[in-house]
Amino acid sequence: MFIKKLQLKNFRNYTDADIEFSKKKILFIGKNAQGKTNLLEAVFYLSSLNSFRAKSDFELIKWNEEFCNIKAEINKYDINSELEINIPLQGRKKLKVNGINKSKFSEFISNISTVCFTTNDLLLLRGTPDDRRKWLDLAICQIFPSYIERLNKYNKIKTQKNNYLKTLKGNIQSDLSLLDVWNEQLAITGSNITYIRINFLHELLKIAKDKHQKISSDEIFTMNYNSSFLNDIELESKYPNTIEYILEQFTLQLQEKKQDEIIRAQSLTGPHRDDITYFINSIEAKKYASQGQQRTIVLALKLAELQLIKEKINTNAILLLDDVLAELDDIRQNYLLDAIGDDTQTIITSVDTLHFQHEYLKDVEIFEIKDNIIIKN
Ligand SMILES: Nc1ncnc2c1ncn2[C@@H]1O[C@H](COP(=O)(O)OP(=O)(O)OP(=O)(O)O)[C@@H](O)[C@H]1O
Ligand SMILES: [Mg+2]
């Protein structure tokens, strides 16, 4: 798949931007704070209805404006489609595919998949569990678009449950029948999410392990999934349990934590509390790995994402690389650029072209960004 056209209105620092892409390799060059990352953010938003950096959609609207608009022409399986998102300051965002309104997020994001690699991702291991869950959930959405509805449903039930817990004011003698209803719904959606996450990570690890070994030559990479209601899962081996087993365990844990949850007025167990641990040669990478070793892990994971999408949906995702080349040493840079197949549309941002080999620059479409204006070189 590839993006042919991107139009922005009141998106971040852009009042009006209109870009046409004619190549698979695209480079945005510009000094700091010109709007390079903003462009990648817009493309990423089309594929996940979420930003990799904004906490709220409103941050995307240009200051002092009432709405923002992202419009794009995408080609997938040789079919062109037009995607449009409108985010108003007041009210819900509106989505259109070929001019037709879509109320289901999955019907929108199924039209485009991206893999995004930013300098922030290099901190994936050191970051918070929240960062890791966000990465994982958005990566899954690129392959299973309907996962986004399950996640939204889970979050909605969790919010309702939390609101209800607050009304109980820590009184464990209250009538808890409504809490049981929330817990039952939470268990069904939550076990589904957990099951999908474990299976996705298992498949991703198989590919990432191989890529990691190629870059680091002799180190063995692996990951565990840390669930708040199951024993730690070694993702290396295929998960032997069924979704029914997960549901049973989650239900049991919800029962066990009930009193605690009422007293603390918080949902204490479920996939919103889970995490991932990374290991190199069986040693926990977060604590002991060097910066370079951590970068290799992230690089291997991102390239694995790209390959897994290709295997699952039979077309290449669009790769977005935000400033990462400057952060990687020569070996990792070359590995990354070599690993990207010619068929993968790659949009790279950089302050200059210094990090690119002459060979790479031969067939690249270069845009320069200065004072909010994008000019094709
Ligand atoms: N909602 C908004 N409205 C207007 N301007 C915004 C908004 N959000 C961000 N900006 C501005 O957009 C500018 C460009 O941001 P961006 O992160 O894309 O820069 P960049 O070119 O990637 O820079 P760097 O090289 O430092 O990463 C920033 O100066 C920021 O203040
Ligand atoms: Mg940037």
N-C termini distance: 24 Å
What small-molecule ligands were found? Answer: adenosine-5'-triphosphate, magnesium ion
Low-confidence runs of at least 5 consecutive residues: none
Strand order of the largest sheet: 2-1-4-5-6-7
| Main beta sheet strand tally, sense and closure | 6 strands, antiparallel
Strand content: 15-25%
SSE order: EEEHEEEEHEHHHEEHEEHHEHEHEE
What is the CATH superfamily label of the largest domain? RecF/RecN/SMC, N-terminal domain
Number of strands: 16
If you consult CATH, what is the topology of the largest domain?
A: Glutathione S-transferase Yfyf (Class Pi), Chain A, domain 2
Helix content: 40-55%
CATH class designation of the largest domain: Mainly Alpha
How confident is the prediction overall: mean pLDDT? 95
Give the overall silhouette: globular
CATH-level-2 architecture of the largest domain: Up-down Bundle
- The Cα radius of gyration reads 22 Å
How many structural domains in the coordinates? 2
Classify the secondary structure makeup into a structural class: alpha+beta
Total count of helical runs of at least 4 residues:
10
List keywords for this structure.
377 residues; alpha+beta; Rossmann fold; Glutathione S-transferase Yfyf (Class Pi), Chain A, domain 2; six-stranded mixed β-sheet; 10 helices; globular; binds adenosine-5'-triphosphate; binds magnesium ion
Topology (elements, then pairings):
Layout (H helix, E strand, L loop, with lengths): L1 E10 L2 E7 L4 E6 L5 H13 L18 E10 L2 E10 L5 E4 L2 E3 L2 H5 L4 E5 L10 H15 L3 H22 L8 H40 L4 E6 L6 E2 L8 H22 L10 E6 L2 E2 H4 L2 H23 L4 E5 L7 H10 L6 E5 L7 H4 L3 E6 L2 E4 L1
Parallel strand pairs: 3-14, 3-15, 8-13, 13-14
Antiparallel strand pairs: 1-2, 1-4, 4-5, 5-6, 6-7, 9-10, 9-11, 11-12, 15-16
Helix pairs in contact: 4-5, 5-6, 5-8
The structure holds adenosine-5'-triphosphate (ATP) and magnesium ion.
